[in-house]
Amino acid sequence: MMPTRHTLNFPDFQLSYLEWNRGKEPLLLLHGLGDHGLVWSSLGEYLSDRYHIIAPDLRGHGYSSKPVKGYTTSDVLRDLEGLFEHLNWRSAHVLAHSWSAKIAPIWARSHPERFNSMILVDPIFITKMPSIMKLSFPILYRTLACLKMMGPFPSYQAAQVQAQQLDQYSGWTPLQQQVFQEGIEEKPNGEWGSKFTIAARDGIFEDVLRVDGLTEPLSTPTLFIQPEQGVNRAEWQMKPYKTYLKNLTLHRIAGNHWPFLATAETFNAIVADFLTGVSTKKSGD
């Protein structure tokens, strides 16, 4: 099933989102830094007969508005609350990857009633960062795989060559090619680069420096998907999740930081099994 694209108009902002809506139970899919909603196309198709699925392009990404400022966690959560109101959703299963998997627990802390369950896919920057780490941002901007497609590139072909060297496109499957093509655009000067903006990048990094993602216990049923080659490999990295997530299921999976692109079939089955278990348990309460 192909998703349909919609635009939600706020007074000063437009939020673009994809929808698979054959199923009834709400499922919200949140992409990571530098990505867009179409990264969930395989999962969306796989689950579309069971769930009403929404995958937004978060602010500064994809087809959504790209303001010069306004990239705090509070700004993103305001967008998501507006999306829930627009959809007439009271609650949903929420799946989040990487940067947005830091935002999801903050949202669950402030609005636990919104969450039927939570799935965190290899979160990043979950704790508050020391201010001195800001000095390393220029290095991170150059080295993080999620930012290497920002460009500029002299041509589409040059951008594609770069993409084929990155973990998220390892294998260069039709799914990965589609995600690459959706995330890049020709700039007014004829160069090519990501639809993700520098203003969004800088604003998000400023925010993750200041905000702690887990500060108190959460009882939301939570699945943590931990790729073998992901960013959460050490026990000290896992400690905040094991400490604060009181209804936690940990599932290790082969592959890298983007298992929904690199090992999509396995990833989809893991997510489906968890969601089925949560729904079954809830109906039996």
Notes on the protein architecture:
The chain has 285 residues and is of the alpha/beta class. It is 37% helix and 20% strand. Helix 1 (41-47) packs across helix 10. The radius of gyration is 18 Å and the shape is globular. Residues 26-180 form the AB hydrolase-1 domain.
Order of helical and strand elements: EEEHEHEHEHHHEEHEHEHH
| Count of DSSP H/I helices | 10
Main sheet specs: 8 strands, mixed
Tell me the total number of β-strands: 10
Strand content: 15-25%
Instruction: Going across the biggest sheet, name each strand in turn.
Output: 1-2-4-3-5-6-9-10
Q: From the alpha carbons, calculate the radius of gyration and give it in angstroms.
A: 18 Å
**Principal-axes shape call:** globular
What is the helix fraction of residues, given as a range?
A: 25-40%
| Residue runs with pLDDT of under 50 for 5 or more positions | none
Helix- and strand-based class? alpha/beta
Average predicted confidence as pLDDT: 95
How far do the termini sit from each other? Answer: 33 Å
